[in-house]
């Protein structure tokens, strides 16, 4: 045995010596290099455009994280909904690239005059991936599953959060009843009118699942989803990849154009970009602004911009003095140089934010003027507030420890703002605890004076920005400023009940004026999230809410 | 020998229990509400509260600990809060991925490290000795993160020799049986795919194996130098034995014993160090599994994951100790 091991070592020694070239034999390395390139040319067809490109029908997408679950009803995270969006259809959907509602599983709908009854005509002949029929009963089954707290199909640990937040929690449900009139007609009766009702129905979370599959698979449905969508779920390797195959019987003619979609989780942005350049993936999400110039220098790749549908902001903590003083908040608003921040940290892929919602959203108030960068005005306001020499205490500024689509590098931006504020006599200390702690702390509002955060819209309605983030009802929760304005509250509640969009739009415009004057936030930027793809990838329409249809994608 | 083995195994039990207590208290000392992180910013307060109750997070942590241990003793490793899947079911593919990567890294580290160490000792103060030890010094201090990205840049992006991420070519996937793809492809007899899998292993295992490689090289060198100066080697040389035989037959056997310890310790350390490598190379291993669980405050996964790694670590140490006896009969366990 001992002889054997010595021999083995001797052999491996020889192997290592040959392989390593024993400390840098250049001639040897040179020949290996040529051999390597030849090998690469034959084994990597994606690097030779004419060989594979014309026939490519598999898309490999690289993204930063994995899905938590594939049942869209029980999740709220974008990564989960992204996949569900390909497997499930909702009654309505958003027109690609917009937040406008258009028919999907429901061909048409009628609203009663009082706004309490919605009657949907369903597309006939649609089948779920398991071969069962999609009909009005299936719609009723799904909505009952989400609304009935005692549903036997609400499995352990599940909560239907989006249903609760869009249609009210148990006890104050918006939807009173869902009824199948006949096989292709389904009727919703509401307890009270809800303006964004159709907008809500179109959300991916309300994708219609196969009742048969839920009954059979039970808990496991979240790992093996069955819908009517363009792609059929095939395999999920956790933290690695999700494979979707073409639904050959998809009810929309000629779709999907791809045969297979593989979604890979590649957490590191640089590694993901490396993989794209190396041809291992075809499309990547969340390109770092820093890599933009490399991308633009590569003719084999293209840049894709997702429409800005988010806001990054600094919020004042009203529980802390002197930030309950509007003059102090306005002064600090005047002392942030947004354009300099955009130029330095966003490679220009952002616009300065004036209001708490993006300009692309209806109801946006163009008339609101921003507090422009003006240190003299800032100093004057501080003096008026009783702080002629700047703030006496050091301010704790919470800067985000993680990269988000609306804020790639929170700490650097915070440092820039820190330097600006220093000039008006406001000293800050930047704190950046780990993300879960960060969210906890800002929600409790005890440690931070000013915090940085952001939001990406879910459903293309101003309510999802203004009410969700700044109404007094959102305390504790998303209103981490503890900002309470009764007048604003009345307007936002009225806007929720109003069904005339023009009137709603006016209400939201008023709301933005009030918010601007109160300055509970310093709105920073609306970013344009960047994606990168192979140059020959076509038909990808980035959606503002971050959910896209892969059915239209093809390779040239 | 058998009673020694028994004793060693018995010692593992208090070690592992101590481990659970430490892990459990550290996790609960970290601020951050799991309900908030799991359900996200967009969930309602009611559902967060419901989740806390359902997970027992509103109970005192001592009670939570005993509940957890009770389940563990019944063979229930817990259920992930985030994915709502039993951990025992979920962790196997991750574990396999990490084991494959760790094994490849240690193979690389040991073969290169041991041989570089031997050669350095054999040709002490030669140019090879100096070069190797300088490389070893750089190797020990190399940040894995940086090394990984540089490897990708050079070998994947510039030279196109090797793939930069993942465990296999997704366009031509490997069918998993054991989740150890090397073994899976051999079982299936798919030699082309075996080569692809090996190619995917090369860059991450070099990144992960560089530090242990350097440590092993230095250890081997000093251990060899010591042995080479001993009387019996001088005798062997005096008898006119060939250099190669003296080094590889006589000296190595004794020099390897301390090296073995280092190899064992480093293998354990790799399990923990794998998280960076797994992130850079999108390697779906247990390091990333635990890392993501920490970000999501997925308590059961953190606990069980760390416990499993600790278990593997102590088992490796046990194996090393047992190997001593096999290599060196002078070691007596009485």
UniProtKB/TrEMBL annotation, chain A:
It comes from the Bacteria. Residues 1-20 form the signal peptide. Residues 36-55 are annotated as: Disordered. Transmembrane segments: none annotated. Pfam families: SBP_bac_5. Gene3D superfamilies: Dipeptide-binding Protein, Domain 1, Dipeptide-binding Protein, Domain 3, Periplasmic binding protein-like II. Keywords: Signal, Transport. Residues 100-473 form the Solute-binding protein family domain. Belongs to the bacterial solute-binding protein 5 family. This is ABC transporter substrate-binding protein. It comes from Paenibacillus tianjinensis.
TrEMBL record, chain B:
Pfam families: BPD_transp_1, BPD_transp_1_N. Residues 95-324 form the ABC transmembrane type-1 domain. It is found in: Cell membrane. The chain crosses the membrane at residues 9-30, 94-118, 130-149, 201-220, 255-281, 301-327. CDD domains: TM_PBP2 (cd06261). Its main location: membrane. The keyword Transmembrane helix applies. Keywords: Cell membrane, Membrane, Transmembrane, Transmembrane helix, Transport. It is a multi-pass membrane protein. PANTHER family: DIPEPTIDE TRANSPORT SYSTEM PERMEASE PROTEIN DPPB-RELATED. Belongs to the binding-protein-dependent transport system permease family. This is ABC transporter permease. The lineage of its organism: Bacteria, Bacillati, Bacillota, Bacilli, Bacillales.
């Amino acid at each position: 045995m001992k002889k054997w091991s010595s021999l083995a070592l001797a052999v491996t020694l020889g192997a290592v010596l040959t392989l390593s070239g024993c400390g840098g034999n250049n001639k040897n390395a040179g020949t290996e290099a040529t051999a390597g390139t030849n090998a690469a040319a034959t084994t990597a067809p994606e690097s030779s455009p004419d060989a594979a490109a014309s026939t490519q029908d598999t898309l490999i997408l690289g993204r930063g994280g994995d899905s938590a679950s594939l049942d869209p009803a029980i999740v709220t995270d974008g990564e989960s909904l992204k996949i569900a969006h390909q497997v499930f259809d909702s009654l309505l959907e958003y027109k690609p690239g917009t937040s406008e509602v258009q028919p999907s599983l429901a061909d048409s709908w009628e609203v009663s005059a009082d706004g309490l009854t919605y009657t949907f005509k369903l597309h006939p002949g649609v089948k779920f991936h398991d071969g069962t029929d999609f009909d009005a009963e299936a719609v009723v089954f799904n909505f009952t599953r989400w609304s009935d707290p005692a549903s036997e199909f609400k499995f352990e640990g599940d909560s239907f959060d989006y249903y609760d937040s869009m249609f009210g929690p148990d006890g104050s449900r918006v939807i009173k009843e869902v009824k199948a009139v006949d096989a292709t007609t389904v009727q919703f009766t509401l307890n009270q009118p809800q303006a964004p009702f159709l907008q809500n129905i179109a959300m991916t979370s309300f994708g219609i699942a196969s009742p048969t599959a839920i009954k059979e698979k039970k808990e496991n449905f979240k790992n093996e989803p069955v819908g009517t969508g363009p792609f059929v779920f095939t395999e999920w390797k956790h933290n690695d990849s999700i494979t979707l195959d073409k639904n050959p019987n998809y009810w929309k003619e000629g779709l999907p154009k791809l045969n297979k979609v593989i979604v890979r989780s590649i957490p590191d942005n640089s590694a993901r970009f490396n993989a794209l350049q190396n041809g291992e993936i075809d499309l990547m999400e969340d390109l770092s602004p820093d890599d933009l110039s490399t991308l633009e220098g590569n003719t084999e790749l293209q840049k894709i911009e997702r429409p800005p549908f988010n806001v990054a902001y600094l919020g004042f903590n009203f529980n802390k003095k002197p930030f309950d003083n509007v003059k102090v908040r306005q002064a600090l608003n005047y002392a942030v140089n947004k354009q300099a921040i955009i130029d330095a940290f966003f490679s220009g892929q952002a616009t300065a934010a004036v209001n708490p919602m993006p300009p692309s959203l209806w109801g946006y108030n163009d008339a609101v003027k921003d507090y422009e960068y003006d240190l003299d005005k800032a100093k004057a306001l501080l003096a008026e507030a009783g702080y002629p020499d700047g703030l006496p205490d050091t301010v704790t500024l919470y800067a985000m420890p993680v990269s988000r689509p609306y804020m790639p590098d929170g700490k650097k931006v915070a440092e820039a703002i820190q330097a600006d504020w220093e000039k008006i006599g406001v000293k800050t200390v930047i704190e950046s605890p780990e993300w879960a702690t960060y969210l906890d702390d800002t929600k409790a509002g005890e440690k931070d004076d000013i915090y940085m955060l952001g939001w990406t819209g879910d459903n293309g309605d101003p309510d999802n920005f203004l009410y969700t983030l700044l109404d007094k009802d959102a305390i504790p929760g998303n209103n981490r400023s503890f900002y309470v304005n009764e007048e604003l509250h009345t307007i936002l509640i009225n806007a929720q009940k109003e069904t005339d969009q023009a009137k709603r739009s006016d209400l939201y415009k008023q709301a933005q004026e009030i918010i601007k004057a109160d300055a509970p936030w310093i709105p920073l930027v609306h970013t344009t999230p960047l994606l990168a793809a192979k140059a020959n990838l076509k038909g990808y329409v980035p959606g503002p809410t971050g959910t896209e249809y892969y059915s239209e994608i093809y390779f040239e | 020998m058998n009673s020694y083995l028994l004793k060693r195994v018995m010692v593992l039990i208090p070690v592992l229990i101590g481990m659970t207590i430490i892990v459990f208290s550290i996790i609960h000392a970290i601020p951050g509400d799991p309900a908030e992180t799991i359900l996200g910013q967009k969930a309602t307060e009611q559902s967060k509260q419901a989740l806390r109750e359902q997970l027992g997070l509103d109970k005192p942590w001592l009670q939570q600990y005993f509940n957890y241990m009770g389940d563990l003793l019944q063979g229930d490793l817990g259920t992930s809060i985030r994915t709502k899947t039993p951990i025992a079911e979920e962790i196997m593919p991750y574990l396999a991925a990490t084991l494959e990567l760790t094994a490849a890294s240690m193979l690389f580290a040991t073969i290169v490290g041991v041989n570089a160490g031997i050669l350095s000792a054999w040709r002490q103060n030669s140019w090879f000795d100096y070069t190797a030890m300088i490389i070893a010094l750089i190797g020990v201090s190399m940040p894995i993160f940086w090394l990984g990205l540089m490897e990708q840049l050079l070998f994947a992006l510039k030279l196109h020799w090797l793939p930069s991420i993942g465990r296999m070519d997704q366009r031509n996937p490997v069918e998993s049986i054991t989740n150890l793809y090397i073994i899976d492809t051999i079982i299936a007899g798919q030699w082309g795919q075996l080569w692809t899998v090996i190619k995917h292993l090369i860059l991450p295992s070099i990144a992960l194996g560089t530090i242990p490689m350097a440590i092993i090289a230095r250890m081997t060198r000093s251990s060899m130098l010591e042995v080479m100066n001993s009387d019996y080697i001088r005798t062997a040389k005096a008898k006119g034995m060939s250099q190669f035989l003296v080094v590889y037959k006589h000296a190595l056997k004794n020099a390897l014993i301390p090296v073995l310890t280092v190899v064992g310790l480093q293998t354990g350390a790799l399990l923990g160090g794998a998280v960076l490598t797994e992130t850079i190379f999108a390697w779906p291993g247990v390091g990333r599994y635990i890392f993501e669980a920490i970000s999501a405050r997925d308590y059961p996964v953190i606990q069980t994951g760390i416990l499993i790694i600790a278990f593997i670590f102590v088992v490796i140490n046990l194996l090393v100790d047992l190997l001593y006896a096999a290599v060196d009969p002078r070691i007596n366990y009485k």
